[in-house]
Amino acid sequence: MAINEQTRAELRELISRYPEPRSALLPMLHLVQSVDGYITQAGIDACAAEVGLTTAEVSAVASFYTMFKRYPVGKHHVGVCVNSMCAMKGGDAIWKRISTDLGVGHDETTTDGQITLERIECQAACTHAPVMTVNWEFMDDMDEQSATKLISDLKSGADVKSTRGPRVRTFKEVSRSIAGFDDGLVDEPATDAAMLAGLNAAKKAGN
Ligand code: FES
């Protein structure tokens, strides 16, 4: 599938949600990423034309945010957090194991197109370090064994769920959700007691 008239209509729908057209640019880029699997030149051209910016301006935005990929991404984008907390609690070991098993390094995709691997920075989920992400869904409290099983399940096409509940979908599908189109998963759980401990303590203290 490539950018077509339906995509352009959806780009215009996103623009209609904001007072200023250019405010819609980030969701628009997620939308074109959901179509092509990454930010193609055709996607940049479509965004620029619909929002009234130059292609250079759109490219500047697309190349600034790491969630926008300028290279083809596999069916699944797998992140391993290697920032301080996760690294110390096993993230470095997980990275080494998975990278070795898959035969790919940072920002590289397996030859079967199944998995793009990325070393990611802190995901603000240190409560559950070390964490991984699959298409930005969290995998909490991982270790080498659970990480290896996760990769095996993804490659075999087995049903995979985030440790927080939501089922894992493809990189393209999640990109469309991030763009702001309903995926029907709004009521799936995404937090647990450990993550809400600070909030609950503040409430208890009357803050
Ligand atoms: S260091 Fe990994 S989530 Fe914060």
UniProtKB/TrEMBL annotation:
Full protein name: Unannotated protein
Is this entry keyworded Metal-binding?
Answer: yes
Q: Which metal ions or organic cofactors does this protein require, according to UniProt?
A: [2Fe-2S] cluster
Q: Which GO terms describe its molecular function?
A: 2 iron, 2 sulfur cluster binding; metal ion binding; NADH dehydrogenase activity
Give the transmembrane ranges: none
Q: Which UniProt keywords apply?
A: 2Fe-2S, Iron, Iron-sulfur, Metal-binding
Concerning its family, UniProt says: Belongs to the complex I 24 kDa subunit family.
What is the source species? freshwater metagenome
Q: Quick check: keyword Iron-sulfur in the entry?
A: yes
Sorted alphabetically, which Pfam families does this protein's record hold?
Answer: 2Fe-2S_thioredx
